[in-house]
Amino acid sequence: MIEQNKIPSVKLQSGELIPAIGLGTFGSDKYGEQAVSEAVYGAIRCGYRLIDCAAVYENEASIGAVLERLFEEKAVRRDELFITTKVWNDRHREVEDSLRQSLSDLRIGCADLFFVHWPFPNYHAPGCDGDSRSADSKPFSVDEFMDTWRQCEEMVDKGLTRYIGMSNMTIPKLEAVLPLCRIQPAALEMELHPSFQQKDLFDYAVSRGIRPVGFCPMGSPSRPERDKTAEDVADMELPSVAAAAKAHGVHPALICLKWAVQRGQIPIPFSVKPAQYESNLQAVTEDPLTEEEMAAITVDDRNCRLIKGQVFLWPGASDWHALWDEDGIIAR
Ligand SMILES: NC(=O)c1ccc[n+]([C@@H]2O[C@H](COP(=O)([O-])OP(=O)(O)OC[C@H]3O[C@@H](n4cnc5c(N)ncnc54)[C@H](OP(=O)(O)O)[C@@H]3O)[C@@H](O)[C@H]2O)c1
């Protein structure tokens, strides 16, 4: 059990301090809901307080059962936890129903942070392969997104979530929607790891008081096969990460997490293995990277996006690069 006062925290724009690291709960195709929820139980007992959930991970009901168990055991109080959840792409027009379902599954009355998981309202089945396309896929629409965001804002008004956030966004999309938001996003969940640092988007979010939450913080070595390509870089084998791991005498995974927390993003590493999730949390409480090690990782960026999102492509779109507005304008 790691003492709470040793775990670093970060400030949201509201002034509230939240943990600088959390636990991911997407079991890929590898771990079922029982394994993931037992990990949530063990991780909270070991000191994690931020848990990153989502309706589409299909395990919120099991996680809810372990949360209830932890509350009954008085291991933790609800107000000591920071629980996120997300609306999936097929429910952008029924946000309240989606959030109420998540809250009921998680057995909590209010979420701490509720994300729009992806800015594309296209349905594709969980676990479908990368070539799968939905017939009604279409490019990003500011109007449709804002309709979803207005519903999210209402969720704050109704006391069903304390904060709202966006995920898998780009600077052009944020430029288009942020001026229209009555409630600004508290956080931006985005892919962040040493080989994919997204400096421009990261700086853009920070400069607007939006806290980056980094997914795949260790390069998601167990991600589903559909998300793997031959060009992908293994973060834990990057020279700067390997050198720091050797110098600190730890697994390269822990270097990725130290780097993330020292940079100011909130990593949400996933693991169902107690030795891994305990060492992941422990790593950010001790033996920080030096300025030189941080700088060496900064220059090792490979612009290697792992979660390319190709299932969201609309008819006529060139390839997955179109989803990420790489020309600086919203792709249509
Ligand atoms: N917003 C979004 O669209 C989005 C997208 C993707 C992910 N996410 C969130 O981000 C979370 C994290 O992403 P992720 O699970 O894809 O990637 P990740 O956290 O980078 O990688 C998780 C894997 O790394 C390995 N690992 C963990 N700790 C380790 C350690 N100490 N030493 C060695 N290996 C270790 C484990 O592999 P083994 O199990 O093989 O040991 C584990 O399954 C997800 O769970 C989810 O909550 C959000």
User: Which whole number gives the mean pLDDT?
Assistant: 95
Biggest sheet overview: 8 strands, parallel
Counting helices, strands and paired strands, the structural category is alpha/beta
Uncertain parts: none
Strand elements, count: 10
Indicate the topology.
Elements: E1 9-11, E2 17-19, E3 23-24, H1 33-46, E4 50-52, H2 60-72, E5 82-87, H3 95-106, E6 111-116, H4 142-157, E7 161-167, H5 171-177, E8 187-191, H6 199-207, E9 211-215, H7 239-248, H8 252-263, E10 266-267, H9 274-283, H10 291-299
Parallel strand pairs: 3-4, 4-5, 5-6, 6-7, 7-8, 8-9, 9-10
Antiparallel strand pairs: 1-2
The structure holds NADP nicotinamide-adenine-dinucleotide phosphate.
The site of NADP nicotinamide-adenine-dinucleotide phosphate has 28 residues, from helix 9.
Overview of the structural elements:
Strand 3 (23-24), helix 1 and strand 4 form a beta-alpha-beta unit. The strands form 2 sheets. The chain has an 8-stranded parallel β-sheet with strand order 3-4-5-6-7-8-9-10. The chain has a two-stranded antiparallel ribbon with strand order 1-2. The mean pLDDT is 95. The protein has 332 residues and is an alpha/beta fold. The chain has one domain (20-324): Alpha-Beta Barrel (TIM Barrel), CATH 3.20.20.100. The protein has helices at 33-46, 60-72, 95-106, 142-157, 171-177, 199-207, 239-248, 252-263, 274-283, 291-299; strands at 9-11, 17-19, 23-24, 50-52, 82-87, 111-116, 161-167, 187-191, 211-215, 266-267. The protein contains 10 helices and 10 strands. It is globular, with a radius of gyration of 19 Å. The structure holds NADP nicotinamide-adenine-dinucleotide phosphate (NAP).
